[in-house]
Design a protein that fits this description.
seven-stranded mixed sheet; four-stranded antiparallel sheet; 8 helices; alpha/beta
Length: 282
């Protein structure tokens, strides 16, 4: 059995020794450990992977961890089973490039998740879901039906026991109701290097300004639009010789890559959020 432990707490001496000693006492072997201290706020972060040859009661492990360590060090912590494949729902609108990329990685076992369904506010990409034999739900969203749509989304997410959501170019604002149910569990891809050009045509605006780089940003969704904790970013060079079509093509390539990296980091339990920023472990 393999466990991954994520911890953050006030920085103090003895944390690493105490945690590794506890794992050893439970007949576990630490196979990976990474830690970071935010000196400005005095917070300690740690990610630890451990393996157990003998069967371990996860509930007993958690109870002992809470009583012997978490209370003493004022820890916020999570423990994850290494063999568990999280359930990832995909929300999409009409653009298919990020959807195809995620599904291709899933199909080739590069992405260790289960995808119970794809949801869209349009029917345009239903054929993609059919190609990959994944259930597709059409939930239209209008000004008048927004609340009804949100209830339907939550119903589907609960029914399928979804762990996290990926917005693969889902062109609707996610409601605070959904965010409250999935805090730091909704991943979005933004078609620019945040903060950047706003509006419906960012690549056109970038082209008009004569920018020399364009980028993409993947972040967790919060109630403040496009201002959630950033998980992954990347850029590519452009010049006066590139057309708007070139900008869009390069941008979509980046969106695919950046979103897949962010999803991989989340699935591997390598992200921690604190004060609207992320700590990304290697």
């Amino acid at each position: 059995m393999k466990l991954t432990i994520l911890i953050h707490c006030p920085d103090q001496s003895g944390i690493i020794r105490s945690v590794t000693t506890f794992v050893h006492q439970q007949e576990g072997n630490v196979v990976y450990l990474d830690q970071h201290v935010d000196k400005q706020v005095g917070v300690f972060f740690m990610r630890l992977e451990s393996e157990f040859e003998n069967k371990v009661s996860l509930e007993a492990f958690k109870k002992g961890f809470e009583q012997e360590l978490a209370q003493q060090f004022q820890m916020e912590w999570d423990i994850y089973l290494g063999a568990y494949r999280p359930k990832m729902a995909i929300f999409v609108s009409k653009y298919n490039h990020c959807l195809y990329d995620l599904l291709s990685r899933y199909n080739s076992e590069e992405l260790s998740v289960d995808i119970p369904f794809i949801l869209s506010n349009h029917r345009d990409l239903e054929y993609v879901a059919e190609q990959f034999q994944i259930p597709f739900y059409h939930v239209p969203v209008t000004k008048d039906t927004r609340e009804e749509a949100e209830e339907k989304q939550l119903e589907l997410l609960k029914k399928h026991e979804v762990d996290f959501i990926v917005l693969a170019r889902y062109m609707q604002i996610v409601s605070p109701k959904l965010i409250d149910v999935y805090p730091q569990k909704i991943i979005n891809i933004h078609h620019s290097f945040l903060p950047a050009f706003v509006g419906a045509k960012p690549y056109h605006a970038a082209f008009e300004r004569g920018v020399k780089i364009i980028g993409a940003t993947s972040h967790y969704v919060t109630s403040e639009l496009d201002a959630g904790p950033i998980i992954e970013q990347d850029v590519t060079a452009v010049s006066h010789s590139h057309s708007i079509k070139d900008f869009i093509a390069k941008g979509r390539d980046l969106e695919r890559i950046v979103l897949s990296r962010a999803v991989q980091l989340h699935v591997a339990r390598k992200t921690m959020v604190y004060n609207n920023k992320t700590v990304i472990f290697s």
